Amino acid sequence: MTLLEEDLLSAAADLLPGAVALRRQLHRQPELGLHLPQTQAAVLAELEGLGLKISTGKGLSSVVADLEGALPGPRILLRGDMDALPMPEDTGLEYSSELPNTMHACGHDAHTAMLVGAARLLSGLKEQLSGSIRFMFQPGEEGSGGAAVMIEEGVVDGVDAAFAMHIAPNLPSSMVAWRGGPVMASADVVKITVAGRGGHASSPHWACDPVPVACEVVLGLQSMITRTVDAFDPAVLTIAQINAGTTDNVIPESVELIGTLRAVSEGTRHAVWERIRTVAEGIASAHGCTTSVEILEGYPVTVNTPQFAEFAASVAGSIFGERHVLNMPAPVMGAEDFSYVLAKVPGAMLFLGVCPPEQKNSLLAPACHSNKMVLNEQAMADGIALHAAVAIAFLQGEYSPS
Length: 402
Ligand SMILES: [Zn+2]
Fold this sequence. Notes:
Layout: H1 5-28, H2 37-47, E1 53-56, E2 63-68, E3 71-81, H3 108-123, E4 130-138, H4 146-152, E5 161-172, E6 176-178, E7 181-184, E8 186-195, E9 199-200, H5 210-228, E10 235-244, E11 250-251, E12 254-263, H6 266-286, E13 290-296, E14 302-304, H7 306-320, E15 325-327, H8 338-342, E16 347-355, H9 380-395
The structure holds zinc ion (ZN).
Zinc ion is lined by residues 106, 108, 141, 166, 368.
């Protein structure tokens, strides 16, 4: 089989106008959470006639499409998430969101369109493929854990490896970034209630004021993070919300602290859970208050299989050139529910540079989750080509796990 790198790039370039049109359609009509009926319908319409075996989700509006090659072989899963964020859009784009407080600010519209493009490209090569390719169109990445629901519904059954990309507006277009091992953090919600005894603000000695105690807890937690966590196996704890009180002359009964905990190893993550309790309870009891600590477990650490990440990076190098492939020195502290897929099967998630060319310093480009996030749609051709190239190389046996 001869599938030259240039062939893939030019096939992807031919598919780009269709991908851009689909991405803009999704961008105008973003949907949230696990149920994305219009997005699902758009994907199903795009996949029609490609000769794929298609099934849709029960507990969510997912689409799973299987491409069976003419010859037997392994199965690789390619994933694209499809959901948007509950936030206003301020990009000024002519295809801006038409819905209030809903925006594709994380590029999942582009992920969906690139995966459709890859399905088109690869279905044209069906006769030459040894093995099969599963296209995973996933709702509910932004906090709803759609990947976990799809796993329960069988999406990774019979899958030998999994691959995904996330767009990165802060990475120059035509660049791909990768990392073996932990690549994104876990994300847990931390809720702490410090309870005292309310009273008159003029007579704190008759009450038990939880406000200064809660402030001490916030500072104690920051000391705990810097003094007990290995700098090379880091954790971030941000108390982002403090709720207490109703007026200036009443000591409130309690204070609520809410924040996020990020870590890049399960060991540090679980150790910090325990220390949060110890610090909060210790400080509160020293002042006669009580605490309750709730850790709402979110996405686990996203861990790329080192050999697979290296394999995918070398495929990227062969199509874009080695100097366009960046080995990331550290993980990013954002989180991803592709972590659930990578906990089940070997694979990797890479970052695809989509910084708009007019933005001279990519680090200053509005990032994912910004109300001003824009991406270079031309770079979507790179994403289509990379999806296809990784799948083809995998089915050709170019990945060896050892
Ligand atoms: Zn995202």
